[in-house]
Amino acid sequence: MRKTLPFFGLWAVLCMVFTSHAWAQGATSARITGVVMTEGEPLPGATVIAVHLPTGFEYGTVTNADGRFTLNNVNVGGPYRITTSFVGFDESVTEGMSLSLGQTLDLPVELRESSVTLEEIVISGSGIFDGNQTGAETKINEETITSMPTVERGLNDFTRLTPQASVGNAAAVNSGAISFSGINNRFNAIFIDGAVNNDVFGLANSGTNGGQAGISPISPDALEQIQVVLAPYDVTLGGFAGGGINAVTRSGTNDFEGSAYYFFRNEDLTGKTPTNNENVERTKLAPYTVQTYGARLGGPIIKNKLFFFANVEVENREEPRPFIIDDYLGGATLADLDAVRQALIDRYAYDPGGYLNNAQTTDGLKILGKLDWNINQNHKLSMRHSYVKGNTKIYPRPSTTYLSFENGGYIFPSTTNSFAAELKSNFGSQLSNNLIFGVTTVRDDRDILGQPFPSIILQDGPAQVVVGTDNFSYSNIVFQDVYTLTDNFNLYKGKHTFTFGTHNEFFKIQNLFTIFSTPQYLFNNVIRDAEQVSGVNRFLNGELPDRVLFGHEQLAPGQSQIRLGDNALNLGPTFNAMQMAFYAQDEFQASRNLKLTLGLRADIPVFLENPPLENTAFNTTTVPLLEQYYDLKGARASNTPNTQVLWSPRVGLNWDVNGDKSTQLRGGAGIFTSRVPWVWPGGMYIRNGLNSSVFFGVNTPIYANPDQWRTNLFNSTSPSGDVDLFVENFKYPQIFRASAAVDQQLPWGLVGSVELLYTKTLNNINVKSVNLKPSETNLQGADDRPRYNWSDANAGRVDPTYTNITLVDNTSEGYTWNFTAQLRKTFPSGLTSGAAYSFTRAYSLFDGLGFINYENWDDVLSVEGKNHPALGRSDFDAGSRVTAFLSYRQSYLEHAATSVSLFLNGQSGQPFSYVYNDNNALTDESNNNSSTNLIYVPAAQSEIVLVDQVNETGDVVKTAAQQWQELDNYLNNDAYLSTRRGQYAERNRSRTPFETVVDLKLAQDFFVETSGGTKHTLQITLDVFNVTNLLNKNWGRRYFVSGGAFPLINFVGFEEGTNVPTFTFNDPGTPYSIVQSGIYSARWNAQLGLRYSF
């Protein structure tokens, strides 16, 4: 608990001092400001009252000596009526405004001396010319949420409206993830009603709790508005380096309003097989059903005083994942795969299940309740609780180079409870406060399918077949308790709005996990008599596997045998941490049309305790050995990093150039500090050489029975296993971000915007394997990269007592830049439209896609070695993106209306890299069985040693010369590789083809209005994701490269007695696959809906 106590004192003092800026850490409100004038002079003492008409909520204040007024903590939505009055003057009444999340509405008021008539003004605001906006942001109101095509009904269906966003397709490395401006999606922050709703542990691609179970944290029927901010120079906003997503839930009003709905889709509402292979028969998916049904209701408990809102939603989903053998690049046939299954049944009485079409299933339940209490004109309290439960059965997605049998999947139950309370207070005309308290508990328990059995990896030429139990799922539990406390205090003095605040997040996390919790056996491809024998055939021939890895708990004092699965409690220590923030800011209204914002924020992450077991042997014996080769920067086993104060100064500008909202310049610069996915520092607690151990065996028989694992695969050495180290002064992710933008009123009512955004990495993770001895040899030939000696524990490792020792440090290498241009227009006829083009280029050293720190290192694609990565294109490099949204509603016949909405998403394909198919045997720097060595692109045949390929009888089926001709042609015809002849391929410099997809929503309403004024509506909807593919079977294609790395050239060994590598080559055709299933796939998916509303 080093260096934490002083910060508790600081936190306590500041919390007493700061007892808001309207939108706090996560935006929940809006603000109305203005100046009251009379005959060109400011009018002090005028009364301004804003009424939220649906609820009767009132917000009141009086103007100051400069005639200025501010109404803070104002609810979003509307409409509002604003009345301004002063003795001896006519009242001014302004109506019709609706406010968006985080908006500041600037309302000029002119009062005239009393007369007979009262003038009423009706206005509406676009929200684009918002005097509070400085950086890039997107606001999504209730109307857009309702009209947007949506099938999955998740937040990403709406946040994809942000031009700078990029959504990973259904089979991408970051499937379903949404990243902003080329930054890791785990560095986003998600707030619902101001409370944290991230998966703070960082395992879900969606970034939300329940994401691993395929469940979104909230139903769209419960949402009122969403805001996405990328560069808010308001220091009250923080906790992210990518994007901040703020959502507020609906509230009840003075009228009872409700809706009941049902949505349905199945195989008849899904397209046939998308393929470029003429030999593949296009077929429907296997029968499946997806159903969603729910209801919402809101209304008054006491009119104008107390309101309720409730929403319940149930979903049952299936998602077939077909395997198309004709697209498979491995050598195994269907008969071979069936023989593998039968061999497991015969030898071990174990059935691994099928492989042709394993349907993923998901069941979910969401319940949300909310109370809003209008205590009085100055104080308003909201309380919301949500319960989300999901259970999913997940199967690995097959590709051209990967296939898993059914029991290689896993089940994932997840339960989330989230509570948020917000008290908004105004004290006179100069003071306001906003207090938010939230509690979120998450219970995730990933488990295996079928009986416990080893995982067996069978290499199959350039592909891989996996049978048996998923070895990440047998021991895998994550429990999270997250407490949020935010308090912001505003002081209004003349042209200044001073903000002082604090935001605090407290975490209690338990993670029970070890890799290889069921033994993982590997059958490699081998070369015999100049012929490659696949791992599939070696298994069928009854050979012994090349190696086995088995991770298990280490024995505690008095413990006689290891426990398996979720009972291995030694693997799951609980740890506590917190992240505090304190900030101060001045918003200076320098003139009527110029606002400057200057603020300073301090983020303070704190580990509240060290791991419970201290590995003194490591620190006294192993550390001196490691320091002979590496600078550990004070890192020690079982020690957490020192507490760091991370400063974030920011400055922002908004200038209404002509004072008439025709031209707006905005921008700013500042530092943003993100949370870190807690799965990374959590490694210090579960991988310290004392909790767990890994058995490593060569030519070890396959043991099918868990009792055999305890006796035959038990590593009794302690300490041993893996160790995660963090440098003493490790810093959380930080970026510097600057932006400049112009918004311009154009002819025909168009509004155009152009924005530049630049991001520079200040602190990101940098991971090294410090148990790997530096290379002492190199390959021979044109490709002369370093070669290591990991497989020989004594020769290649610094301390063979341990397996992987991972050091997590920081790097400042990396940057992104983004250009965005937008056009928007709302027509009075019911037509809303917008279009945008955005280009993002992102460079990084580490992308942090892994969950385990060692995995973050082991997945690095490199030439010089994973400890020496080069700055390269990021996995989150989005390239070009074109978006367009069109929505039109037409009422007719007094009782009917038709709505049509279209969303176009055109984006550059997935970045990927060309690597050797070598399973890391080429450089021997880890026990990873995947391929991560970037290829050398030969300029001539003399720069690569190709060997003849022979069949089972020893006959040459393809000579080295023939292979060179194929390889030479392939390299010349590849747009990127043709430019790299005689050089190494670079990371992520190739891309899958550009993807263009249009989504459609049709809604037909039939409505009647009763004598009491209640409107009853029956609505029939049709949502079609990828309607482009429905129109033409060759349109709407989405592509992926498995793992983002394509194994192009096969490494087969070394020339005898040398370090000269030898290779074979077979033309693989296109390096990418078509995404076969899922909402973000190349098939069209339609959904029918029925809704009743009143």
Automatic annotation (TrEMBL):
Describe the location of the TonB-dependent receptor plug domain by residue ranges. Answer: 134-245
UniProt KW keywords: Cell outer membrane, Membrane, Receptor, Signal, Transmembrane, Transmembrane beta strand, Transport
Mind listing the GO biological process terms from this record? siderophore transmembrane transport
A Pfam family cross-referenced in the UniProt record is: CarboxypepD_reg
Give start-end of the signal peptide: 1-24
Q: Where is the TonB-dependent transporter Oar-like beta-barrel domain?
A: 248-316, 354-1032
Where is this protein found? Cell outer membrane
Q: Name one GO cellular component term.
A: cell outer membrane
**Out of the domains of life, which is the source?**
Bacteria
Give the bilayer topology.
Multi-pass membrane protein
User: What molecular function does GO assign, one term?
Assistant: siderophore uptake transmembrane transporter activity
Q: What is this protein called?
A: TonB-dependent Receptor Plug Domain
Q: What species is given as this protein's source?
A: Catalinimonas alkaloidigena
